[in-house]
Amino acid sequence: MDRILDDVQRDVLPGLTHWQSPSFFAYFQANASGAGFAGEMLSTGLNVVPFMWKASPVATELEQVVVDWMAGLLGLPELFCFAGGGGGVLHGSTCEAVVCTLAAARDRAISRLGHAAILRMVVYSSDQTHATFQKGARIVGIPPANFRVLHTTAESGYGLSADTVRAAVEEDVARGLVPLYLCATVGTTGLGAIDPVRELGMWLHIDAAYAGSAAICPEFRCHLDGAELADSVSMNPHKWFLTNMDCCCLWVADPTALTSALSTDPEYLKNVGSGGDVSPIDYKDWQIALSRRFRGIKLWVVLRRYGAAGMRNYIRRHVRMAEWFELAVVADERFEVVVPRNFSLVCFRLRLRLGIDDDAVDGLNRQLLAAVNASGRAFMTHFVMDGKFVIRLAVGGAMTEMRHVRDVWELLKEKANELVGAHEGYCMHVEHATHYFRHFWLFI
Amino acid sequence: MDRILDDVQRDVLPGLTHWQSPSFFAYFQANASGAGFAGEMLSTGLNVVPFMWKASPVATELEQVVVDWMAGLLGLPELFCFAGGGGGVLHGSTCEAVVCTLAAARDRAISRLGHAAILRMVVYSSDQTHATFQKGARIVGIPPANFRVLHTTAESGYGLSADTVRAAVEEDVARGLVPLYLCATVGTTGLGAIDPVRELGMWLHIDAAYAGSAAICPEFRCHLDGAELADSVSMNPHKWFLTNMDCCCLWVADPTALTSALSTDPEYLKNVGSGGDVSPIDYKDWQIALSRRFRGIKLWVVLRRYGAAGMRNYIRRHVRMAEWFELAVVADERFEVVVPRNFSLVCFRLRLRLGIDDDAVDGLNRQLLAAVNASGRAFMTHFVMDGKFVIRLAVGGAMTEMRHVRDVWELLKEKANELVGAHEGYCMHVEHATHYFRHFWLFI
Lengths: 444, 444
What we know:
14% strand, alpha/beta
């Protein structure tokens, strides 16, 4: 083991991208914590495979308790809890949750309309929803021609409007298609947008992968308004909830819709909990695979160790850091915030001054991001919004403190100065060259 | 943490089914080892998310090295290795591997025939293949009416025959259907059965979930004969290869078939390795989810720690234990081996003597299994084969030694004696009662 660990030191560590660095602000948070690590050690050490209740009763039952706890923390309606006739499960990823709920919705429609209806089924999401959703829809056999990406605008805070949803759905119904499923990313769908979904018996899934963590704070709970109208909700403790990879909560209002699609034996109905009764269930029928790990104990240790108040402080700390950063960006006239801050995610860019053309601005920001990342002192990523190259600061690392956010702001200004100096030097050079050329020509 | 660990001791441990007990012979092996545990600690501690090469280069590259090593250990043809134009990935389960390869096969056919062809696609497996395969086919949208379960017999060692496959496939072609995919469980499909599959351009997947481990021993490598004709192969180190849950190897001959179905962006082709060149790849395009854990380091530590020779000794140890048990069963005339031993899995039952009707034999064996399990001294499970209730001894626990196998044989005989005593006491009682009743009637 010593030689192996030496090799880890020499060959593995230098080849990592350090997700746990307090200055990692890229992609999305992937929290790690002492409690999460301890929970994973217990899970891996015990190495049981709770694919059925009988295969390790405490593993199934602890998972049921923990997903109910999480539902309570997020303020989800009772209908998603086992006692309320619903239930939850721990998956490995949002995509798994999406595939399972898509299969449930699809099979529910197939039982009414026949298998050929799969060619007419349509799925909807906003243009803010991750490509993960379309991948899930493709996996379950929905024709790619039947993916509707609904447009959102800055004016609506990039949320879906009821009009947009209604118009898209009605057009598809008129064409003889079957609107099946709407994937709504929390915080971007207001209550109104859901009405057409409910009327048509479509499946509504709320993807709270990241923002579900914020919802444990009462001041952010409004983002889950309308959840009582959803068929399923998912969020990822392995993102911003101090739970080491992997861990995704999926809650469903009607477990039988899920188990009907995913069960491998007709006896399953015996094991589905009925309202008010925590009956033994077989989690193999709530997920893609047969086998599974004891994920419940990892999330349980995190919740026990840090507690609800501790987790709220944790979330608020990051939100305050992001607020500070956002204000700093706004106060610096060379920069602009491109999208209103989303909890602890700030999307911004270097704008310099009005009059610079868009391509030049994009080019500047690409260089800025490259320069920041090349320094090795922080890591950020970008996305493209309305044709604009936007830099993302995703605050939420378990070890990130205010000073790291202050440092990355200093770093951004430092690199911006270098770039702007070079840029303005170039502009000045072009101006001078043009000036002298003009005089030369006149002279000639 | 002390309070949490006290609760684990008091509330969690007593509620487990102890998969790691050396006397756990149920379901399937789910190995755990010191090296697997250490590897998982490194993975969870570093907590990187290698969904793209760039997101932690060493994680992707180490995984590529490790799956190539495993291919070499199993004696798989070069065409499944990156250097040979193929490649591999670590999934969480066989079902994930099946869903991904089914999606690849389906989309390949769709690109030729159009999406409506999904209604005509047919998938095949032997009746020995786990229900996992049908679940995967259902998830990807193949109509359940198009699942063909091909019959096998004891005479052929429960392997598929070329005639059976050909007949099924030709019948479907005649009906205008599209034979798509055959899932072959290793050791049950001879080379001959694959011909019709190749001729029709069907996808052949070899499921070596359990037996792939045995194939690292030259004497068992013949079970992978024909692999060079397959499109994909999978096996689970988390079953019988000292790698803690979860870890499944999937190898494909043509990675682009996989990435075409699973990629979320059109730029992916840039990252697909071409023959002889280990180009950076983005593993998010080789699996269902976007995010993923650093599984490669866990399997790497296992391979480094135990080595090829060490792993072969490990496999052979279990096979010898199972051989001993099988001989013991054969030598005891009250018992019979029902299916020829499959590596370290022995399927047997209590038969007593000829003349006892089948229902009574089934009832006896149900009681026997219940008595063994109720004793708490061992745990086994059963299955039904040709209408017979069969008890399974799955040898392969990391801590199982010869004495545990001897002990479970003693336990089986002890419980059989009790049952037989009771049974024969009952039979004698019935005989006596019948005898006296007959005399009484005559007397009357």
